[in-house]
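[audit] Reproducing an earlier prediction to check determinism. Same input, same settings, fresh worker. If the tokens differ from the archived copy the diff job will pick it up downstream; this log only records the rerun itself.
[audit] input (282 residues):
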Amino acid sequence: MTVSVLVPSSLVREADKREATRKLGTVARAATVFRVDRLTVYPDPAGERKHDDGFVATVLRYAATPPALRKEVWGERDELEYVGVMPPLRVRSQTGSGPKRSGSSRQGIVTEVGADGRVRVNCGLQHPVSLPVPPGMATPEEGERVTVSISSREPVRAKLVDEPTPGYVVDVTDLDRALARENTGLTIASSRHGERLQSGGLDSLATACREAGDGRLSYTVAFGAPERGLPTIHGLDPDGVREGRRTGGFDRWVNTVPNQGSEVVRTEEAMFATLGCLNLMN
């Protein structure tokens, strides 16, 4: 299964830095709990107030960084002033068989990409290590998380492993480009203006996700911001969203919180509600 989530840079538009950091921590938790593969921040400059896409992406990337590497990788940054209020992600299998034992697999951060087919990786050892990129593996970019297998600590013997790292990766791109790129699967807009999602509709939605994912359950789900739902951000008429399925580049518009008791469902709340529903597809 492949899951991608799109959130706007205006996601924390009404919050001060401390509250914005807490909200982003909840977004990171939702992405982790429901095994989101990619978390994309799409710019919404018209809705931004105090924080831009750089702030949002930085905090989300910090949250995805293994705790043992955060201080060395990120140092002191203004955007990270209140990261202490973020809940721990506790990503499963984050350090393999253990950070202090030989034969363990762990995450590392690429700090430098060489021209000789090698990369320098910070993986929590005393010093960063220079490792060759295995044949057939795409050369990782600087700042990218990678999996490192460590067979000995003294002397250090380690190698890159061509397997996905646990947790999500973060990128920043325009909403239209995010919807148009390859391997998006079924594109879903989460909106109160969308079609009400009922238990009987999960099977048909799962079928559509498999068709879009070439047999694999694959989908991309997008969210709006406080006082700026997806129709507003995308410049769409909400009535047109109700009437047509494929509107604004999305395959489906879905309301996962019908009969909501609050006037507003916050983005981080909508993420848990929506991903929780979609997680039931099989």
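[audit] rerun output stored. Observation attached for the diff report: The longest helix spans residues 17-33.
[audit] end
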